[in-house]
């Protein structure tokens, strides 16, 4: 005998697939083949079938993963908690009853559940897929011992017809019809009042399924309970003469008066316990009523519904089905995403993957092709969800094919949830263009030659062995060091309480992890590993690691450490929707903006026109048209020509700080009915300035930061009463976006008016790690210097904050985007000093402090108007942090003759590769 047959008990949970596959591969290499009880939503647990599987196997092998206790478990019940599932407990007890050789593979450091003392057992490590050193030895011992044991010979038991003597003549007719249909696969079990219970059970266990009559005048009262207690699958029938018999029998079973057990009503009935369970086919009625005149059709019905059970038993003789089952399990299935021009090569890759035991789906070469009559896109979506690894073959036409892009977008979403692995391959000299968050995948070069294809197969196999949840040492070690520094080193620290309050773990999870950490040789690493193990989970458990990173990032004073912690959100995939494939494709498609240059001295030449347009109340529309024609003349000739040729391109206007007052957004050109700022996104660039950090959009989509930390700060006053409303509206934009993506709300901080003091502002900016600042307050001039005007929350007196001091705070911050929703109300009229002075100086302080992206107003706006304008901006901004598109949308939402849409300017610096 070269192989032994093992009854394999394992978990069907998605998070347990990787270890199931690893153990199965090791066992398969040792010559073990398997019987498996495949899950079936239409079939309840059938104890008899499990018993038959156990009897026909040489041995029992169980893979038992740890299961978390219930959320409401108390400390008293935690100690007695068993990690075994009830189903696996039953299977183990069946193995004990059948006296089969046994081996249990436990998750490391878990409780033993129903395992008796002295039982052979080995362990596994879920995170690393490591098996205990004695694994191969114990398996070899089990195999050797199992080969010496007899097992039940394989045969196909017949269907049993339980006939009571003396039988009704209709039953004789039924038996003849059933035998004719089933041929030799039918056995009549004749019993009478002299048949003992033991003899009845012995004969009943020798058949696949027992067809038994339940009529009170025929069947002894205790027989149904006897057969149920022995877990014998029954097909219950009842011979009746009329509808009145059905009603009378139903009432005798405890059913409501007037109810029947016809198919239309059976599903709604609360059946007596005697008629529950042990149904072996979903098509079975609880009771099949029949009359003498329908004996032949009833026999055909019996053959139909019992056939499904017999088909299941046939798999007990096809032990190779265990291999097919595991090869088909999630854990080693590949989806090949490829455009049509790569079919020749990728079909060879599919064939090689199939041969290596990793079934691959391919449009042109799959055994189970896409089916007609169903939505094609839905079928593709289902295929991607059903796969464990997506192999994207990035040929030159990949990004141009909508289907390929859709597949990759779907796969990235599952990859973020640790439900799928990703791999990319290409055919050519140079690696293809990829989003920054996928560059870590290191594209594999493939060609239509055996060695190259073998390498692709080897890389896929290696990635499966590594697993979706393997965490690199480079990520774990820095986290462990910071956890030791900021968490475990604290005196009198109740770790379980801290995990519950800070990481929002359930009490049971927090206590369990605290106990594991306390007993570990390296507590910091154990804590990090425990939280990382929860990342693929849902809800608070899955976000616990992200909350730890948030906490550590806020505690760290070193900017390099904070940057690294920000990147860990993305690298460890701690939160969903961080890797936006669609946003990357949109940026790739739009390319670089069209850069135009303003002529020298534009600020002085345009000042009279700007003052005229801002002050003319009776006909603002005409004033803006006049101003737009003048502004267009200030753009140098090459830029004007390019604007006429590239009508869809974004525009970046290069100039000086002083030229910000020139409303380029109002420029109008012949043949274009709308001003420039309403036709396309427009931003400004200040020559000579180099930011200290990358812009928010670039940093976010380049895998450098996690969800941005947002600071909303405002100082209301009697003439700025709508500041709180403005902050609430912006906060709601961020909170809605963060809730939708599953990002923690704590990343959005709104300062209450009572706390809007200069001292608090300094603390938040100079010592914080926010990436976004929205500032709503008064601003103005004090002498020749720009100032921010805050209001003391207690006295109500104005407090002056010099722009230079504000800029110093920004230099020590991590800000990447600042919105200066500041103006001085009606205190000053528009003139040379106010237009070219404090507005530009305040913006200049922010830019020179290293902030790469700023929105500011070049002249005063109304308090009420800024509320809806900023809301329109942030509703678009929170989608993908594209400030240019957001400001364009806010401008489009403004009335064409309202100066507000042209009052706001966006300054974007260009050093995109800054960390």
- What composes the largest sheet? 8 strands, mixed
Report the principal-axis shape. Answer: elongated
CATH level 3 topology of the largest domain: Rossmann fold
Mean pLDDT: 80
The tally of structural domains comes to 5
Strand segment count:
27
Number of helices: 36
CATH architecture descriptor text of the largest domain? 3-Layer(aba) Sandwich
Mind telling me the C-alpha Rg?
A: 37 Å
Write a brief caption for the model.
This protein is α/β, with parallel strands linked by helices and 915 residues long. Helices cover 44% and strands 15% of the residues. The two termini are 64 Å apart.
Commentary on this structure:
There is one protein chain. The protein has 915 residues and is an alpha/beta fold. The protein has 5 domains: 4-146, Rossmann fold (3-Layer(aba) Sandwich); 159-303, Rossmann fold (3-Layer(aba) Sandwich); 330-446, 3-Layer(aba) Sandwich (Rossmann fold), CATH 3.40.50; 473-574; 705-880, Rossmann fold (3-Layer(aba) Sandwich). The chain contains 36 helices and 27 strands. Helix 13 packs across helix 16 and helix 34 (863-880) crosses helix 35 (883-893).
Helix and strand layout, with pairings?
Blueprint: E1 4-9, H1 17-29, E2 32-35, H2 47-56, E3 59-64, H3 75-78, H4 86-97, E4 102-107, E5 121-125, E6 130-131, H5 135-146, E7 159-164, H6 169-182, E8 186-191, H7 197-204, E9 210-213, H8 223-229, E10 234-239, H9 243-252, H10 263-266, E11 288-290, H11 295-314, H12 320-328, E12 334-337, H13 343-355, E13 360-361, H14 376-386, E14 389-393, H15 402-416, E15 421-426, E16 444-445, H16 450-466, H17 473-488, H18 495-502, H19 507-518, H20 523-533, H21 539-555, H22 559-571, H23 581-590, E17 594-597, H24 602-615, H25 620-633, H26 637-645, E18 651-655, H27 676-679, E19 682-686, H28 696-701, E20 710-714, H29 723-741, E21 748-750, H30 758-766, E22 772-782, E23 785-791, E24 798-802, H31 803-811, E25 817-823, H32 832-836, H33 838-848, E26 853-857, H34 863-880, H35 883-893, H36 900-903, E27 904-908
Parallel strand pairs: 1-2, 1-3, 3-4, 4-5, 7-8, 7-9, 9-10, 10-11, 12-13, 12-14, 14-15, 15-16, 17-18, 18-19, 20-21, 20-22, 22-25, 25-26
Antiparallel strand pairs: 5-6, 22-23, 23-24, 26-27
Helix pairs in contact: 6-11, 13-16, 14-15, 17-20, 18-19, 19-20, 21-22, 24-25, 29-34, 31-33, 34-35
């Amino acid at each position: 005998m070269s192989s032994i047959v093992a009854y394999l008990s394992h978990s069907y949970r998605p998070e347990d697939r990787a270890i199931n596959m690893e153990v199965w591969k090791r066992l398969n290499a040792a010559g073990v083949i398997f019987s498996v009880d495949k899950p079936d939503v239409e079939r309840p647990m059938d104890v008899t079938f499990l018993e038959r599987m156990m009897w026909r196997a040489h041995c029992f092998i169980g893979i038992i993963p740890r299961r978390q206790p219930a959320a409401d478990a108390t400390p008293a019940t935690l100690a007695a908690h068993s990690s075994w599932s009830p189903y696996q407990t039953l299977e183990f007890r069946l193995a004990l009853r059948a006296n089969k050789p046994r081996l249990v593979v436990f998750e490391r450091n878990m409780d033993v559940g129903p395992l008796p003392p002295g039982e052979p057992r080995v362990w596994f490590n879920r995170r690393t897929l490591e098996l205990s050193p004695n694994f191969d030895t114990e398996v070899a011992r089990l195999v050797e011992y199992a080969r010496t044991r007899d097992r039940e010979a394989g045969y196909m038991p017949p269907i049993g017809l339980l006939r009571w003597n003396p039988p009704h003549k209709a039953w004789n007719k039924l038996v003849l019809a059933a035998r004719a249909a089933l041929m030799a696969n039918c056995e009549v079990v004749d019993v009478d009042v002299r048949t003992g219970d033991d003899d009845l059970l012995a004969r009943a266990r020798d058949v696949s399924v027992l067809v038994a009559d339940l009529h009170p005048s025929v069947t002894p009262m205790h027989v149904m309970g006897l057969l149920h207690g022995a877990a014998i699958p029954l097909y219950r029938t009842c011979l009746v003469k009329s509808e009145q018999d059905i009603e009378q029998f139903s009432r005798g079973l405890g059913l409501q008066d007037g109810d029947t057990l016809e198919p239309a009503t059976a599903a709604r009935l609360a059946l007596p316990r005697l008629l529950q369970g042990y149904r072996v086919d979903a098509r079975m009625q609880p009771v099949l009523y029949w009359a003498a005149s329908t004996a032949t059709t009833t026999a055909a019905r019996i053959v139909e519904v019992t056939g499904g059970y017999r088909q299941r038993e046939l798999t007990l003789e096809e032990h190779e089905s265990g291999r097919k089952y595991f090869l088909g399990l999630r854990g080693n299935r590949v989806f090949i995403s490829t455009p049509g021009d790569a079919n020749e090569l990728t079909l060879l890759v599919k064939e090689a993957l199939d041969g290596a035991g990793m079934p691959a789906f391919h449009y042109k070469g799959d055994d189970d092709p896409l089916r007609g009559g169903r939505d094609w896109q839905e079928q593709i979506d289902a295929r991607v969800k059903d796969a464990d690894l997506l192999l994207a073959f990035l040929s030159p036409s990949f990004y141009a094919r909508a289907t390929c892009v859709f597949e990759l977008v779907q796969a990235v979403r599952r990859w973020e949830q640790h439900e799928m692995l990703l791999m990319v391959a290409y055919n050519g000299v140079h690696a293809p263009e990829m989003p920054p968050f996928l560059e870590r995948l290191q594209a594999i070069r493939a060609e239509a030659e055996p060695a190259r294809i073998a390498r692709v197969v080897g890389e896929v196999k290696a990635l499966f062995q590594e697993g979706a949840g393997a965490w690199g040492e480079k990520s774990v070690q820095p986290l462990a060091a910071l956890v030791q520094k900021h968490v475990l080193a604290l005196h009198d620290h109740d770790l379980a309480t801290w995990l519950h309050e800070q990481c929002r773990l359930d009490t049971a999870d927090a206590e369990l992890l605290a106990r594991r950490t306390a007993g570990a040789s390296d507590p910091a690493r154990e804590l990090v590993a425990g939280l990382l193990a929860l990342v693929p989970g849902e809800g608070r458990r899955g976000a616990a690691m992200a909350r730890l990173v948030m906490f550590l990032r806020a505690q760290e004073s070193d900017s390099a450490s904070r940057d690294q912690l920000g990147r860990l959100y993305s690298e460890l995939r701690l939160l969903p929707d961080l890797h936006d494939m669609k946003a990357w494709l949109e940026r790739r498609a739009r390319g670089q903006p069209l850069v135009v240059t303003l002529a020298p001295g534009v600020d002085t030449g345009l000042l009279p026109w700007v003052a005229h347009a801002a002050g003319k109340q009776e006909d603002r529309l005409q004033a803006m048209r006049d101003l737009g024609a003048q502004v267009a003349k200030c753009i140098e000739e090459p830029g004007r020509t390019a604007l006429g040729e590239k009508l869809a391109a974004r525009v970046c206007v290069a100039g000086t700080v002083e030229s910000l007052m020139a409303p380029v957004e109002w420029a109008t050109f012949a043949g274009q009915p709308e001003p420039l700022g309403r036709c396309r996104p427009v931003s400004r660039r200040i020559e000579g300035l180099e930011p200290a950090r990358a812009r928010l959009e670039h940093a976010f989509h380049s895998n450098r930061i996690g969800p941005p930390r947002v600071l909303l700060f405002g100082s209301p006053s009697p003439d700025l009463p709508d500041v709180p409303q403005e902050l609430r509206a912006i906060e709601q934009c961020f909170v809605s976006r963060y809730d939708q993506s599953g990002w923690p709300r704590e990343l959005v901080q709104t300062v209450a008016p009572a706390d809007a003091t200069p001292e608090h502002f300094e603390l938040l900016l100079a010592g914080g790690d926010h990436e976004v600042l929205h500032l709503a307050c008064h601003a103005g001039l004090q002498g020749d210097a720009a100032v921010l005007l805050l209001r003391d929350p207690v006295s109500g007196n104005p407090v002056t904050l010099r722009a230079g001091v504000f800029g110093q705070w920004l230099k020590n911050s991590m800000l990447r985007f600042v919105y200066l929703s500041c103006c001085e109300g009606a205190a000053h009229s528009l003139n040379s000093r106010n237009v070219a002075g404090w507005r530009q100086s305040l913006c200049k302080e922010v830019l020179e402090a290293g902030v790469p992206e700023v929105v500011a107003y070049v002249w005063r706006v109304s308090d009420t108007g800024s509320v809806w304008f900023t809301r329109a901006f942030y509703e678009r901004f929170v989608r993908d942090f594209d400030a240019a598109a957001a400001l364009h949308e806010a401008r489009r939402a403004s009335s064409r003759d309202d100066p507000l849409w042209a009052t706001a300017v966006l300054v974007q610096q260009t050093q995109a590769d800054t960390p």
